[in-house]
Write a structure and sequence with these properties.
The chain is α/β, with parallel strands linked by helices. 44% of the residues lie in helices and 8% in strands. It has a single domain, classed as SGNH hydrolase (Rossmann fold, 3-Layer(aba) Sandwich), CATH 3.40.50.1110. It has 14 helices and 8 strands. The strands form 2 sheets. The protein has a 5-stranded parallel β-sheet with strand order 3-2-4-7-8. A 3-stranded antiparallel β-sheet has the order 1-5-6. A hairpin with a 5-residue loop joins strand 5 (230-231) and strand 6. Helix 5 runs antiparallel to helix 6 (173-188). The chain is globular and about 60 Å long.
Length: 360
């Protein structure tokens, strides 16, 4: 009996200790404001002439993009999606041909490995005050599934509010408030939030001064890059020169490397929820556009690879959704159909600026 009591006491103290640590470290600033944080970075970014450097181990991209959503009223189009869309802007070298002249100013809210949770949260935050003409949604082969990643927990409280508002037929402000509070408290006991806390502490130990540096970037060519990765004032990404040089000499493996395309995909509940998101965007006064960014041709050469299976299963579903909701589609996962050459890829799944600009 004493053993069981001691075990329960130890477990309780451990959980409480982790919760206290998460509260004090607070990697996503759920409970505390950060004087030199993503909000300041976002303010300086939109006010800059050419953008800001985004060195390795600096501010997490989800925190930056969340902070950028409050500037959405300044833009007439918004892009939401994964790293596949992070280079897109109104700039001539990374402008989607399929948009024509519709978007003179594009706010890019793309984040690495975006999931359905990211789409719902960032779209909700961007359209809270703004009414952009178009919301361009980068639909990846893994998107139509719940729980593919926990990276979205950086804005877990906002996700709860967004999910309640967009997916619940009878939501109220009181329900949203309750959902937000529960998500904030739940984050204290979340394994994903604990891992974020540990990562934040390791970054402090590695280089606390550089991590918080906010420095102006010069005018950069997206095909050449610079000393570090950089964000343009519209949130679009320019890769570093070193990354682009390494990518130019890297071999593309047949089938590609599995990235988020294993496991359960294209869940019927997730598809229905994405339909609800598209309808909510329209109800808010904006027009959704679905964007499929191509994979390298080598990926499709191995029909049984996870990437290839996911691609071949997801694109027909996305096109059915578009037809059902009368939503425009730009691009394709198939590089031939998209009109992109094998040399126009940074790796097996990231098209170059020239390929992105040609999508229609």
């Amino acid at each position: 009996m004493r053993y069981i009591f001691a075990l329960l006491l130890t477990a309780t103290l451990t959980v409480c200790g982790l919760a206290l640590s998460n509260y004090l470290i607070d990697p996503a600033n759920v409970f505390h404001d950060d004087a030199v944080g993503p909000e300041l970075y976002a303010e300086k970014l939109v006010a800059s002439a050419f953008g800001l450097w985004w060195p390795e181990n600096s501010f997490e991209d989800r925190r930056i993009k969340k902070a950028l959503t409050k500037f959405a009223p300044r833009f007439d189009c918004v892009v939401v999606g994964s790293s596949h869309v992070m280079q897109i802007s109104a700039n001539a070298e990374t402008r989607l041909q399929g948009l024509g002249d519709a978007c003179h100013a594009i706010l890019n809210l793309g984040v690495s490995g975006a999931t359905l949770e990211d789409h719902i949260t960032l779209t909700y935050l961007a359209l809270h005050e703004a009414r952009p003409r178009y919301v361009i949604l980068g639909v990846d082969p893994w998107l139509l599934s719940w729980g593919k990643s926990q990276a979205w927990s950086y804005y877990a409280n906002e996700f709860g509010e967004a999910k309640t508002t967009i997916l619940s037929q009878h939501s109220t402000s009181q329900e949203s408030s309750t959902s937000t509070t529960l998500n904030r408290v739940a984050s204290l006991f979340s394994l994903a939030y604990t891992l974020q806390s540990l990562r934040k502490v390791s970054e402090w130990v590695a280089d606390p001064s550089e991590r918080r540096a906010i420095n102006l970037a010069p005018s950069l060519n997206a095909s050449v890059g610079g000393e570090h990765p950089a964000f343009r004032p519209d949130g679009s990404l320019i890769y570093s020169a070193r990354y682009l040089a390494d990518a130019a000499h890297a071999k593309i493996p047949l089938g590609g490397q599995t990235y988020m395309t294993s496991g359960n995909l294209n869940q019927s509940k997730a598809i229905d929820d994405y339909l609800a998101l598209l309808r909510w965007i329209r109800a808010k006064g904006s027009e959704p556009i679905l964007l499929l960014t191509p994979y390298h041709e080598n990926v499709l050469k191995v029909a049984e690879s996870n990437n290839s299976v996911a691609i071949r299963a997801t694109e027909p579903i996305v096109r059915q959704v578009a037809k059902r909701e009368n939503v425009r589609i730009i691009g394709s996962y198939d590089p031939v159909r998209a009109g992109c050459e094998p040399t126009e890829f940074l790796d097996f799944m990231h098209p170059s600026p020239s390929c992105l600009a040609r999508l229609k």
